[in-house]
């Protein structure tokens, strides 16, 4: 007569109890064959029952001497990470994006204030993540203070903050300044740098279209800082787009640090063990953004991290410098605060 599943489970449970009691009553290690002979249980079933007892949390130890119940728990070995080895070269950057110079909504007051902050913090390099100028097309032609490539180029050269010892490394976006890449077939980033150099400015350095990877090497290893001007519209959640970008990387492609412009948002996250930062914008909400119900977070970021002797990055610090509408800085509260009031 065949047994039901319930009957089989009951028999197995009874055998496990007998084996466990046998090991409790007979201290020391016993070969499973001895347990099998002593209890009249086939060796295969003894093995299965012992493994099942271990899975259930019974303190049974298996060795080449056999099975035994331990009545004391072993002391867990203490692992120590020498944190002094994590220290190394320190890096500090200013990070900005979506400045849109040439737009009447660009916040030059904020951009200059950020450079004042970075100068005071000893920043030597500002990483700009695209849309450094506003471009010119039917979508924004009524929002501009400077029209066309040359006017906006001159406007940038005259108005981008210049601070002694600070270099701006910038990428260009697929949109805005990138419109001229598509319509005129011009490398707008290289044009901006050449024009700036011709005007005597060496601090505006074009480093790539849409994306740039900065490689840090040490001890034969490397880590990547990626600058990116993303595309597409603003998603329903601030972190959603950056999460999807990082999800799209294969394992070997992932940067250690990803800086993303385009969305006019501030964010610091850590999806898939990638430190991701969005640095906000220095452009107020435009009629287009208002129509699309898209907020523009005004501000910029100071980014700090250390890299140890093995090219591992540690101690990430993101300082978010928020700013508010223009009228706020003209109000009595602002003046009172900076005169030392509460």
Tags for this model:
single chain; 342 residues; alpha/beta; Arc Repressor Mutant, subunit A; Purple Acid Phosphatase, chain A, domain 2; six-stranded mixed β-sheet; five-stranded mixed β-sheet; 10 helices; 13 strands
The major pleated sheet works out as: 6 strands, mixed
- Helix-residue proportion: 25-40%
CATH superfamily of the largest domain: Metallo-dependent phosphatases
Sequence of secondary-structure elements: HHHEEEHEHEHHEEEHEEEHEEH
Write down the CATH class of the largest domain: Alpha Beta
Task: Please give a structural write-up.
By secondary structure, the protein is of the alpha/beta class. It has helices at 5-25, 32-39, 43-55, 108-120, 148-159, 177-184, 188-198, 240-247, 287-291, 332-338, and strands at 60-63, 66-69, 89-96, 125-128, 167-172, 204-209, 211-218, 221-229, 257-261, 266-269, 275-279, 299-307, 313-322. It has two domains: 10-69, Winged helix-like DNA-binding domain superfamily/Winged helix DNA-binding domain (Arc Repressor Mutant, subunit A), CATH 1.10.10.10; 87-338, Purple Acid Phosphatase, chain A, domain 2. Helix 1 (5-25) packs across helix 3 and helix 5 (148-159) crosses helix 7 (188-198).
